[in-house]
Specification:
The protein has 186 residues and is of the alpha+beta class. The protein is built from 8 helices and 4 strands; from the N terminus they run ααααααααββββ. Strand 1 and strand 2 form a beta hairpin. The chain binds zinc ion.
Length: 186
């Protein structure tokens, strides 16, 4: 008997990749030298591009992205000084300032979790999804609807107690609780 001579079907033929959209969303972190593009956006004097670059800096802890930009902070500051960045619930000018502080923090070699206490828009659930922190517990907070979350930095192990509140928008207050097992009561 000789083997059948029908056509060989490859059942594993490629279909549309359902992860493409997700991959595209993460493109700024996946592309090899993304800093150059972000820097061009920061220096473009176009509000939308500056804001997109700003949010990219908020979203990542990747030194390959942040460190080249950290060396350009003064240039970015000059190039963005006169742009009207707008902002509805919070001024994008202060958001941009925080993004630049974040670059400076990265450039100093300290852990990026050090940025959390100085900005109200770090959502611990999103930070956990990005594997920047782990939510390791909760603590009732009589002043808020949501219990505080106890978060541990995935990079340095520092712990924070994170309060969630509402004031025009949802905000989060990150307070370091290192070596402070006893919680203050009011
Ligand atoms: Zn840390």
């Amino acid at each position: 008997m000789i083997g059948h001579d029908g056509p060989v079907h490859d059942e594993a033929s490629a279909e549309a990749d359902p992860t493409l959209d997700a991959a595209q969303e993460q493109a700024p972190e996946a592309v090899a030298p993304p800093s150059a593009r972000l820097l061009a956006d920061f220096l473009s004097a176009e509000k939308d591009r500056v804001l997109a670059a700003m949010w990219a800096v908020y979203a990542t802890r990747d030194d390959e992205i942040l460190l080249p930009l950290a060396r350009q902070v003064s240039q970015i500051r000059r190039a963005t000084a006169d742009i009207d960045l707008g902002g509805i619930v919070a001024s994008h000018r202060s958001n941009l300032e925080h993004a630049l502080d974040r670059l400076t923090l990265a450039g100093s070699g300290r852990c990026l979790c050090g940025a959390y206490p100085s900005h109200p828009m770090y959502n611990p659930v999103k930070e956990e999804a990005k594997q920047h922190v782990r939510i390791v517990g909760t603590e009732p907070n009589p002043r808020q609807w949501e219990a505080d979350r106890i978060c541990e930095c995935c990079d340095c192990g520092r712990r924070f107690q994170v309060e969630q509140g509402e004031y025009h928008y949802t905000w989060w207050g990150w307070r370091p609780i290192d070596a402070e097992p006893g919680r203050a009561r009011r």
